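Hi F.,

I've been meaning to write this up properly since the lab meeting, where we talked about keeping a consistent format for the predictions we share between groups. The idea is simple: the sequence comes first, exactly as it goes in, then the structure tokens exactly as they come out, then a line or two of notes. No screenshots and no reformatting. I'm using this chain as the first example so we have something concrete to point to.
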Amino acid sequence: MPLNLAAESSSAKKLEAVRSEISELDKTLSLNKKTKAELQQQLKKQSLKVSEISRELNQIKQSIAVKDDELLNLQQQLGVTQKQQTKQLEALNQQIRSAFMNAQPSYLKILLSEQSPERVSRSNTYYRYFHTARQQQLETLHTTLQNLTEQEKAVYAVKRNLDELEQQQLSQQEAFKQQTVERERTLAALNKKISGQDAQLAALKEEEKNLQSLLDSLAKKAAKRPPPSKTVKPSERFSSLSGKLQWPLSGKILAS
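Output, unedited:
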């Protein structure tokens, strides 16, 4: 086989192999770029979700702060009310002792006392009046304490729920952050892979271009070659081929 024909055949086979490799690489690259786009979309959604959770956490923390203030106020009110109740109880006990000592005085006590029976009876009436009034105050204080205690319990319950919700949101936020880190690593590796494949594809296309140029050049050279000489048929007489045969050698004729 002539040298040019052998080179043309080899280049054509190589070009076919390069084009096949380009086709396969194009498919792989397209798939990787699609995966990259999906990862970027997932990361965008995760970023929005993390921002949303952060806003919710800030709101929860503000609500917890409000409930802490409410609890502090309630505890202060409870403290004040309990002190008032203690004072009223002490005063009531004192009144009871005094009333007991002065209740229904005997004749001897009245005789020995410089006070008249009417004055002693009037004092007992005052004791009973103050005793009743103080009992009413104590009942009011007791009701206030009960109400404050119930409010405190309700606020504690709300705060406990807020604390639990805060922990749930923090756990969810941490999980999203971990997923984001993993996907960012995957995306970085994929970007590196795509970059290498882009470079490889560019090199293959350059090789395809060079091989195509080589084949075009070989084809042009083949077109310039003279056509092959006409083959002598065995049936023709040699004498009839006079003037049709090629010269065996090129050069100047020295003798006929």
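Notes:
The chain has three helices and no strands.
Helices lie at 3-102, 107-112, 117-224.

If this format works for you, I'll send the rest the same way.

G.
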